Amino acid sequence: MSEVEPVTLLHFSGWCAVWTVAYLISFFVLPVPDAVRKVTKNHNEWSARLVCFVHGILGCGLALMSIYTDGWITFGKPNTFLQNLTTASSVSFFLVDFAFCEYFKLNEWDMHIHHLGAILGLGGSLYYNVCGSEAVFAVIWAELSNPFLQIRIFIGMLDTQHPRLLQIQTVSTILFGLSFIVLRVGLGPLFIYSLGSSSYRFVFIAGVMLMFISAIWTVRIVKGALEMFGIIKPQTSTTQTQTVPVVTIPTAAAAENGFAAKKIA
Q: What is the mean pLDDT of residues 65-69?
């Protein structure tokens, strides 16, 4: 077992500090729109999603830069500087996000498995200083669709009827669905199969955990699409808070029972 290099610890601790400050600012400094407060009592979800949106863009940006600089997947090779920087930024995000969302009771069981799988895979890569290219690809695989999802939910939580915003929401919904299906359902099984030959079992176990959650979320997405196009009947909610299907485009009618979409990272 190799010792963790000081620069790696510096990356990890620095990113933990960055994400902690980002969450503190989002939760306690940045205002939540009045429209969101009217539609849902759990307005902390808005604050959490802001940071999640930033990580989706930043994490994928670093990952793509790493692939451009260091090349495509080279299984089991020692990590490069940029691979460790990318991995540290994402594993620290998932740790901080998990802590804040647990404290504010925003996570459900599927997010627990998703976060634990991400922390196991990315954290193992960072600790052992191997499988950096696999970890970088996993960031893109898991997070590229995330910004589209957050944009869609942000507009839904605003409960607006502005035509331009609704158009943006429709486009983001389509892009989210396509990117999720292509990456997680299309490339996902091939990626997990390739990890099966790795001598580092933590990457394969983490990949299986993430693929398992991806399959569950795919069922939700397909179900939401069928409801949106009227193929099946939407489920009605008798509780105070309504969970909107992932690809459903909410309208003002959603405010009747409240609006709180499930968080999918």
A: 93
